[in-house]
Amino acid sequence: MAALPFSTRRPFSSPCFILCFLLGFVAGLFPFAHRHLHLDLDLRHLPLADPPPAAPTQRALVRPPPTTTLIVVTPTRARPLQAYYLHRLAHTLRLVPQPLLWLVVDRGAATRETAALLRGCGLMYRHLPSQSHRDAPGARRTRPEHPAARGLRQRNAALDHIEHHRIHGLVYFADEDNVYSLDLFDQLRGIRSFGTWPVAMLGVGKSKTLVEGPVCDNSQVVGWHTNERTKRQRRFHVNTSGFAFNSSMLWDADKRARQAWNYIRLLDTVRDGFQQ
Hints:
Layout (H helix, E strand, L loop, with lengths): L14 H15 L28 H4 L8 E7 L5 H13 L5 E7 L5 H8 L5 E4 L18 H19 L4 E4 L8 H7 L5 E3 L2 E4 L6 E9 L2 E7 L6 E2 L8 E4 L6 H5 L16 E2 L1
Parallel strand pairs: 1-2, 1-4, 2-3, 9-11
Antiparallel strand pairs: 4-10, 5-10, 6-7, 7-8
């Protein structure tokens, strides 16, 4: 087998290769644009690009913590669904920004069952009794007590506790068997003295929706509205879940005098056909 002939021509001796090498070398020594080259340009006529949006700071993302304490008053009683109602309301209140104080008032003496439920609720709470002269041992009852009077006595027991200990905050009555929106508790902290709003409820048989609430004129309550047709005499057509007030009204005489309604405490002597 014959060997290939050896080429004596060197690869670097090609004129084309030498020309390209020289052009590249010269281009490296004399660049077309240098970072220190000053161009005579009028920067005032150049269009300016919009600055990029500033990234939100950590302070802007975090809402300031609320400072007003919400005092939520809940009457309760021993019944088959008591644990379910209290647990459901506790889950809602845990989602409300603190500070919040939950006053749970038992009907009569404070029971161990209610205390056991509250210990695991994860909230700041106080468990209160609502005993009266009717609950005293050996007390004589001339006539049966109206069902509404027991709930009013429980709420009044919470008001007495708030006044006695001078607990500052916004008082709101939240029944255990109701469902509440978190937006409601955000709006409560905007109340300075007293606030009320319409409340929708289901009527007897859950076949009709009842709406009760205030009639206002420039932040003044001038009347009450309701679409309930009943013969019951009511002084205020508002549900207990339809108003909230500053707790200082319980002991501040000046604030009491400036309020036309002036009836925070509820009458616990409820008669048939009349509701305070």
